[in-house]
Amino acid sequence: MTAAPLPKTGAARYAGSRVQRVEDARLLTGAGTFVDDVTRPGMLHACFVRSPHPRARIVSIDNSAALALPGVHAVFTAGDLNGDVVEAWYTGTGNQVPDTPRPPLAVSEARFAGDIVALVVADSRYLAEDAAELVDVDYEPLPAVPDYARARTAEALVHDGYAGNLAGELAGAPAETIADAYDGAAHVVSETIWEQAQGAVPMETRGLVAEWSRGSGELTVWAATQAPHEVRMFAARLLGIPEHSVRVITRDVGGGFGQKVVPLREDICVLLAARRLAGAVKWIEDRRENLQSAGTARHEHGEARLAFDDAGTILAASLDHVQDVGAYPTPWPVMTGAATGMIFPGPYRVARGTFSHASVFSSTPGRIAYRGPWAFETLAREVTLDIAARRMAIDPAELRRRNLLRRDEMPYSSPTGMPYDHMDPLETLEQALAVLDYDAFRNEQAAARAQGRYLGVGISCYAEPTAPAFGVYATEGATIRIEPSGKVNVYLAGGSTGNSLETTAVQLAADALGADIADVHTIQGDTAVTPFGAGTGGSRSGSMIAGAVGVTAAELRDKLTKMAAHKLEASEADIELAQSRAAVKGDPEAGVSFAELADIAYFQPYALPPGTSPGLEASARYAATGMGLWACATHVCTCEVDVTTGKVTLLRYVVGEDCGHMINPAVVEGQIAGGVVQGIGGALLEELAYDADGNPVATTFMDYLLPTAAEVPVIEYAHVETAPGPGPGGYKGVGEGGAIGAPPAVVNAVADALAPFGVTITRLPLTPAAIASLIDASLIDQGREPETGGSQ
């Protein structure tokens, strides 16, 4: 879809247009400012001493050799830093929600390979690394819990006090309350789906610079974060100082994907160390540390059960879900685990359903948020739905068509209590199938099979809550100032990590004020000057920024209109604002520029209308309501599988996306594409693998494989805007959907290609070796000769 060009005269409508990203000039020329670009006078550098054992008792730590090295300023252990913590809870969950252990440095035991045992601070990173190697830690290896699926029956405990290594559990209605729906169903399909551990792997690793001023008692933090104000609140609580004594500055951030939503243990250590040393301390994570210790996601399994009548109508849906939360999950993981079960019925017409969820500790890094933390529900449901379609001999597109919700059925309440509204799931399916030309592909597939080639098509549909309206996430503020020059500055909390919040803010503010977009600038990411905001997460930014800018700009519009009417001796009702100018309707020559109005507002207060205050600045907050804004989409993927080698080649990828009206279609498509690529990686390549003892075996990009342009086809889009959201501008979230919908679409495409072999896919990733083994195992079960070497 290509937007109409911007009008050259008259009122510009920027929202909805493919406005070029305002940050591109800076980023593409290498002029961005990331944390590692920050240099402070006398700055010191940090390096962590990490455990080489999956689990071990820390018998003793001898730091004398490290401290003797010239240029080493400190070697901190748990006894030095951990006692300095005043409070260490996260705003998004609050201090009343049950939480799990999260000490800054390991206490008495290292609980995963890579656990932080000591912190070395020196004149340079090189020196700090050398000193870290001199720290002599005496470990006593202990039995680890490497496999979360067996953790409930393991003798060893990751944390004392958590019997059966259970971090927490939640459930919906008891399973027996819907047992009759399964007992009376014509078809019941039950499959256990397994998803491997993955990492967020942002291009820029984690890092921060923390500078403590002893004289003023103030802390300044330069952070790679998705939520500057959360870092500020957390640091103030951590150190027991007022919030106004903490300033957090976030410039450019090279990707977050959930990993940078809240401060993790290393960040906590650096914040504590900075006050101890009374200066600036920098820590930049290297890639090995990132892959080993920055947290994992998606490591989970669940038994999905679907009941159908003879016509393929879904009668009931349930999910028994277990997730690995590692040793130090951040924050309390049971909330997102429960969301997985609650959203499991998806965008379908399901009368009855329930779920159970358990979060289980293991001797691996802690679970973190990652682009759609509840995305397993879509994988489990959509893969099981395709398996059911094959068993019932119904085309998977037709099975979905019979069960997907329609726009005219909204609002609709799912059996687990999800209040769906303002979405059009069936239309996203129809649009995506039309772009693909589904029937033509089926003909092509049949012809290819006759030639001994195996093509497949996979479909994935989902619904997701965006812009959650609870707690810290329910409001967003903005300050807009028209400067004396007439130029516009928009101040927002920020949290942009490549998702174009700068461009979004400029487009929205230009429209809301009637300003020329070239006159609008935005300032984000500095807690000293920006209004409070929750940052990027939960696909909230577009809608919340639109709300904040809208309510704030409305105040300035009223003032500009009143001032212009007074100066032009016209009725306020006859004033139009466009292209940074106020004019009288029907008489475009009778007008005044924003610059002229600003001159009056700041320098000629006597010329203002009676009762009008000087200046042109407004601050306001937008408050969202309800569960959130529901977005939905259908992903359709086609592929070819080489049944000899197991190699998968993706052919086409189509996304039918309903995210409401689009602020910038190019940005929307960029967000979808980024998520899809991550989802493809999760389906085919990526795995944070561990050996049987709990040692990580994927700590470099030689072992942890990421998708490249060679593995990803051109992504095609079918935008659906027939069910805009009820919030500002009809915008809904789009940041997480690509990563949610892609894995099951790819899995289902591969499974469809291998349907002639009777293969059922229930475990990721689909590496060539895994596919070859699946084919061979299925053929052996059927008494046929294997076609690959996969089972040998």
UniProtKB/TrEMBL annotation:
Q: Which InterPro entries match?
A: Ald_Oxase/Xan_DH_a/b, Ald_Oxase/Xan_DH_a/b_sf, Ald_Oxase/xanthine_DH-like, AldOxase/xan_DH_MoCoBD1, AldOxase/xan_DH_MoCoBD2, AldOxase/xan_DH_Mopterin-bd_sf
Cross-referenced Pfam families: Ald_Xan_dh_C (PF01315), MoCoBD_1 (PF02738), MoCoBD_2 (PF20256)
The UniProt keywords, alphabetically, are: Molybdenum, Oxidoreductase
Q: Where is the Aldehyde oxidase/xanthine dehydrogenase a/b hammerhead domain?
A: 29-143
Coiled-coil stretches: none
User: Which positions carry the signal peptide feature in this UniProt record?
Assistant: none
SMART domains given in the database record: Ald_Xan_dh_C (SM01008)
Report the Gene3D superfamilies cross-referenced here: Aldehyde oxidase/xanthine dehydrogenase, a/b hammerhead (3.90.1170.50), Aldehyde oxidase/xanthine dehydrogenase, molybdopterin binding domain (3.30.365.10)
Q: Which cofactor does it need?
A: Mo-molybdopterin cytosine dinucleotide
Entry keyword annotation includes Iron: no
Recorded GO molecular functions are: iron ion binding; oxidoreductase activity
Indicate what this protein is called per its UniProt record.
Answer: Xanthine dehydrogenase family protein molybdopterin-binding subunit
Gene source species = Trebonia kvetii
